[in-house]
Design goal:
This protein has 653 residues and is of the alpha/beta class. It contains 19 helices and 17 strands.
Length: 653
């Protein structure tokens, strides 16, 4: 898979690139060789990114020319061969760093820690507004920690006209030493002259392909999906070449073993898992989104499960896990409990986690109406050390883990295939929704939490009856099944699942999956905390409380225009550019002016204006909370009705 690269030195098989499309052609042939039928290329629209080179050179202290390779982000920047630039170091790249500094036409070098501080797009856009030619980021821990020579590039989620590159810490330390020597020679800023040769280009509304192949089902019109993405960054051994090889390998094993599935098994290599659309917060999972919402909108309603895979040839923890939707958790956990774990790879065994997270394509599958699961990969040291760096290579391959995942997920797939109906338990997600509800806050705000609790409990009881009907139906011998009726019930079950996703799945500003009332609920907690400190005249802890309110943490470090750009591209952007994030964040509490005002206060200054503004914010959030609870009451009623309708289908002749 790494034969085709956009950058001949570093790798990269970027979304919509020629290298990605050529690799798609290769995967078509591999699927055919594996014995899959109806192998096709589904054309999808993306903002294509071609990154061909980013090379910097400069004279070292001894006069020799040092040349270094840089990584890149999905942005536009092209030189005519090597061009001279001033390279200036500006710490963390916050607004304060630019005071009395002219960076127009210069390269700005900054250190970032995206796990603990702020995401890359904020300092990048700040540099762009100041007229910088480009920003170059060095990871100050957080990612690419395996070695100082590691390059890194994370999701940018910013406009292409704000160029950005990445530099290894080893190269940065050498440049920093040179800058300090020049600074001692009389310069006021840490700055050197460099030559830079770069070519990275974003082309909007281009195309690429998702690749699919099938093992036809013998009884059902329903399908089971195996998915993994085939764009990659640097070598992408774990992320996600190993996963693409795995889904084809599982399919080949089934075919060679003579297995005839009841449901059609679809193998799907997804393009553009990252950077598929520019300048939107939800710029990843574009390939999956385009597949199920545009290329194959008939899949939701027919696909009973998506087995998605990410980084499957490495043990990310001492305990393995399947992460799935709430509705599949009981079935998956019962299957996991039967597994005899091989020695030496997961000493703490295996478990089931839920809900699905936003970090991979399975979230998009889920909200489209396809119940999904993924091998859990988001925790553990791999993400901090190897992820999106040149160290994600064959050296991190763990054969025993890879073999186990092949065998485990093949068996789990066969277990799902053996069922005539998808084993969806809606009671678990309903239980989760009311477990997340704060009844004391409902009483305080006037929100009708008691009615929501009652309505949801009613829906839970009906969901339990439905789950028992599904269990009884699936316990019948396959030979006795009425597959036509089963498919009709399946379609209805998947419609209920889709509505549960529409009604109950929301996101916070950190892309965590939450229930609809939780964002406002958490804001009210934080506003209470901030107000209590302001009442005592304590500014610093009050400001600390603001950090957790929506995206107001960025109001502390960046200019108003930066803050507003990355707020409004969620609240005001067109739905087609929000993709899987549209409608998942409904409210925003803008505290930018309060933050700026409080940061300028001196001990003894009046805080009356800020206290009044906080009370107004609390009132707004209170009204949002009341609305959210009313919405959930209506949602519980609708789900209750849909579940009852589904139960009646079992009783019809």
């Amino acid at each position: 898979m790494e034969q085709e690269k956009t950058n001949p030195v570093l790798g990269y098989r970027t979304a919509g690139s020629l290298a990605e499309r050529k690799t798609g052609d290769m995967l078509c042939e591999e699927m055919k060789k594996a014995g899959l039928t109806q192998v096709e290329k589904d054309r999808i629209t993306v903002d294509a990114w071609e990154f061909h080179k980013a090379v910097m050179r400069y004279p070292d202290a001894d006069g020799s020319i040092r040349e270094i390779q840089l990584g890149a982000y999905q942005t536009d920047f092209q030189t005519e061969g090597f061009e001279k630039f001033e390279l200036v170091y500006l710490g963390k790249g916050t607004a304060d760093e630019y005071r009395n500094v002219d960076v127009k036409g210069k390269l700005v070098l900054v250190e970032i820690n995206q796990r603990e501080e702020w995401w890359i797009n904020y300092p990048v856009y700040q540099a762009h507004l100041k007229g910088a030619a480009a920003l170059i980021a060095v990871q100050s821990r957080g990612y690419a920690q395996i070695d100082d020579t590691a390059l890194n590039a994370q999701d940018i989620a910013g406009p292409p006209e704000a160029p950005a590159f990445s530099m290894s810490r080893a190269d940065f330390l050498k440049i920093q030493k040179l800058m300090k020597a020049k600074q001692e020679g009389g310069r006021t800023l840490p700055e050197i002259t460099v030559e830079f040769d770069a070519e990275t280009q974003v082309k909007k509304d281009q195309y690429t392909y998702n690749i699919i192949g099938k093992i036809p089902g013998s009884c059902s019109d329903s399908m089971i999906l195996l998915s993994a993405h085939y764009d990659s960054y640097f070598e992408g051994f774990q992320d996600d070449n190993a996963a693409v090889a795995m889904i084809i390998g599982i399919a080949r094993a089934l075919i060679r073993g003579g297995y005839r599935p009841y449901h059609t098994i679809v193998v799907c290599a997804l393009a553009a898992e990252e950077w598929g659309i520019s300048d939107t917060k939800y710029d990843w999972s574009t390939g999956a989104y385009r597949q199920v919402f545009e290329a194959r909108p008939d899949w939701p309603g027919h696909v009973i499960a998506d087995f998605n895979f990410e980084l499957p040839a490495h043990a990310h923890s001492t305990r393995d896990a399947v992460r799935c939707t709430y509705e599949y958790a009981d079935f998956v956990q019962k299957f996991v409990d039967t597994v005899l774990m091989p020695e030496g790879i997961y000493p703490d065994g295996m478990t089931t986690l839920y809900p699905i997270e936003t970090w991979s394509d399975d979230f998009t599958m889920s909200i489209s109406g396809i119940p999904s699961m993924v091998n859990d990969f988001s925790g553990g040291p791999f993400m901090e050390n190897y992820y999106h760096s040149q160290y994600d290579n064959q050296d991190v391959y763990e054969e025993a883990v890879y073999k186990f995942h092949h065998e485990f997920y093949l068996r789990l797939l066969m277990a799902v295939d053996s069922l005539t109906l998808p084993p969806l338990d809606f009671g678990r997600v309903l239980a989760g929704s009311i477990e997340s509800l704060d009844m004391k806050l409902c009483m305080r705000t006037g929100a009708n939490g008691a009615l929501l609790l009652s309505k949801t409990e009613q829906a839970k009881k009906v969901a339990a009856q439905l789950f028992e009907k599904i269990r009884q139906w699936n316990s019948q011998p396959v030979a006795d099944q009425n597959w036509k009726k089963s498919d009709a019930i399946t379609k209805k079950l998947l419609a209920v699942f889709k509505k549960s996703q529409d009604y109950l799945v929301r996101l916070d500003w950190e892309d965590n999956v939450i229930f609809p009332q939780q964002a406002v609920q958490n804001n009210l907690y934080a506003l209470d905390e901030a107000m209590s400190f302001l009442e005592k005249g304590e500014i610093a802890p009050a400001l600390e409380a603001f950090y957790s309110i929506d995206n107001n943490c960025y109001a502390f470090q960046f200019e108003r225009e930066v803050f507003y750009h990355f707020t409004e591209y969620i609240m005001k952007q067109s739905p087609e550019r929000l993709m899987w994030g549209k409608g998942r964040i409904l409210h925003h509490e803008n505290l930018y002016d309060i933050v700026k005002s409080l940061r300028e206060k001196q001990p003894g200054d009046s805080l009356e204006t800020e206290r009044r503004q906080l009370k107004e914010a609390w009132e707004r959030q209170k009204n949002y909370y009341i609305d959210d609870i009313e919405y959930l009451i209506r949602a519980a009623d609708k789900l209750n009705d849909m579940i009852r309708e589904t139960i009646r289908m079992f009783e019809e002749e």
